[in-house]
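hey can u check if this looks right to u? its 275 residues, i copy pasted from the old doc so theres a chance i mangled smth
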Amino acid sequence: MKFRLAAFADEADSWLDGQISAMRENGVEYLEIRGVDGKNVSDITAEEAREIRSRLEAAGVAVWSVGSPFGKIGITEDFEPHMDKFRRGLELADILGAKHIRIFSFYVPHDNTESYSDEVMRRLEAFLAAADGSSITLCHENEKGIYGDNAERCAEIHANFPKLRAVFDPANFVQCGQETTSAWELLSPYVEYLHIKDALEDGSVVPAGKGIGNIAHILKKYCGTVLTVEPHLSVFNGFEKLEQGVNTNRKYCYPDLRTAFAAAVNALKDILEGI
């Protein structure tokens, strides 16, 4: 396998020991750290970051990226407190040994999206200036509701900031009505890595290869090595009722987080075996 697997292991367990266990069980070597021991990674202390890194290294796990919430505020919200938190996030990423931070391009009103372009670019430029000279690569993820929710606006962002790399998320594009193969053709020169998540036409998230995200097609063209599994699969508390013919809005439901996590990893492995 030419690819190396990372994961949002907080979707298997809220606590680090459980995340490590789930990663080991499923052959995942890198962590895209987002939630850990009951906190968002942006809220941990430097001391906690050092302890987390020590525990991960003892388990043979490395942090690939910080799955941060930076850029996930409204475009009209006060930016300075967010910017202060971002600067601290750079320090935390360095302590954790991460080389990437995932960011977003701010929630914008969708009745007048383009009018906010200048402010979006100003804020992204501030992120990049703060990271300049560090060992951290900033990576913008396409996401529903933000400025960079479709391929064209993502391309605009990357054309303005060549140092800003892309996290390509097929399911997020599907949820925005964006066809993924055309998005890939437009954005592939900027892609640093992929989030492996698939979705149906109605936006429901499903295991990789079960939706319309064209993941196998994209993986054949992807020149990178790291793939982050982001399950986002439904855990149904009344799972046992499914076998009694009770309908659910989700095509794929799982009895617990660990089972859903394993299903997401195995779906990706099945695709990789076929390409």
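The longest strand covers residues 191-196.
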